[in-house]
Amino acid sequence: MNANLETGPGSRAGRREWIGLAVLALPTLLLSLDISVLYLALPHLSAGLGADSTQQLWILDIYSFMLAGFLVTMGTLGDRIGRRKLLLTGAAAFGVASILAAYSVNPQMLIASRALLGIAGATLMPSTMALIRNMFKDPKQMGSAIGVWFACFMGGMTLGPLVGGLLLEHFWWGSAFLLGVPVMILLLIVGPRLLPEYRDPDAGRLDLASVALSLGAILPAIYGLKELARTGIHPTPLAALAAGITLGIIFTLRQRTLTNPLLDLRLFANRSFSAAMGIGLMAGIVMAGASLLSSLYLQTVQDLSPMNAGLWLLPQNIAMVIGSMAAPALARTIRPAYVITAGLLLAATGLIIHTQLAPTGGLPYLVTGLILASLGIAFPMSLTMNLIMASVPPHKAGSAASISQTSGEFGIAMGIASLGSLATLIYRTDLTTHLPTGLPTTAAHTATESITAALTTAHHLTGTIATDLITTARTAFTTGLNTVAAVGATIFILLALISATILRNSHQPTTTPHTDHTDHTDHTADPQPTHQQPSRPATTGHTQHDHTPTHHPAKDDHPVLATID
Q1: What ranges make up the beta strands (E) of 7-73?
Q2: What pLDDT, in 10s, does the model give residues 182-238?
Q3: Angle separating helix axes 363-390 and 306-331, nearest 10 degrees
Q4: CA–CA distance, 306 with 298 (Å, rounded to integer)
Q5: Are residues 165 and 278 in the same domain?
Q6: Residue 199's CB: how many other CB atoms inside 10 A?
Q7: Are residues 48 and 160 in the same domain?
Q8: pTM over cut 0.85
Q9: Which has the least CB within 10 A, 55, 148, 238, 450?
């Protein structure tokens, strides 16, 4: 029996919802673990398939391209067809694509499989977050549930190198992709029993032109940012970025004219939503750039192997797991804005420590700074998502989740492109000024491209000039990292001021605001209502209908927004 039930104000989640959260944690853990495992598997699969350098880049990047491109579409699609249905469909597709990737016979097949994995992944991320928004009506419980979600995501990043190393030591490279198959099978078995269905029956038809425009805007923009970070300023990535921005403007204009837009721009009218989105985006930019340069520092300046470098980066992931769990608990007694502010200031402290890094003896400073920055940044990353989800009506949860996660993908790409470019500029300027005397012109030109090129060049030289080039290159790179850390710390301090001012009134209410009546719930797996509020009178047949006259808010009448802003 299916029942359309509505949860009344103040309803608290019970045992069934918390067990359902454990089910939702499965794909979240897997997606992050799958990303980190691939970096270890890349050399093995490249040797096994004979992938050249260009194909290796596409194997790595196509997943994030497709994930970012389809997040907005899939988040809105889940609001229309049902979030559980989309989640389970995506889980099945992810499992099939994982098998295809594991048994790929050539690079082209693996690239295509990774593209399918990206599309399937785009169905999983917003669906899990939207279901959390609908299952946990109480703001405090929702904050704790989102904290668990973030902890699982970071836990996957932490376990990835360990699990990947164990698999690759005993099995072939395809085993890294098969990790997802049993997880998705389990989700398909228990999901229909433990997860309720939610959909917006008034969402209207999916606008295919908007879907095409969103893909046309996001994919070239992400590609352009990644290529600018990788190869520097060239016509192709600039043209791709320009095309993405142009189509993005057209997409935005079209959404303003639609009755049922793919992306509801009115969500940004809420100050809490916009401020939380902005803080999340800028924090992602800073941490992406700092993490990239820290990883390179460990391998090029400290001369550690990729595996040892990965082990030194594990403490920051553990710190982020701890922070994502602690933030919701702190927000129960302290205003979320103040917890976010404290986290940003702690993260700024970590980056200030990075400004003191030196080419030698810098490992303790690097690890300490990363732990503080990761612990601090977990506070705003967890709580801003909570504010975002609490500031939208339930029937917009999928759309809001997809916007947030698309913003995260842009933040990573922009952080690598912008802060990576800044570090490169500082490196080239410093190295050019202090090049060893007597260095051949060709070698000098090559060395200024990157620290990796400088170290490779030094290996072809002899005597003190080789040693001097290595020392100078490492000093120049460290100077670039110091500069990026100073810029990042400044950004975090400014974000802390924004949080303390704009978000100070965005405290979590003790009861949940009125739930929008367009949020239809299908508790297929739970025929006995477990909510505190009485359910509507049942009628015979497959679905219940409420014939009692009720007020249906207009599309721009968001009662939830009024409570928070």
Answers
A1: none
A2: 888 888 888 888 787 877 766 667 778 888 888 888 888 878 877 776 666 788 888
A3: 40
A4: 9
A5: no
A6: 22
A7: yes
A8: no
A9: 238
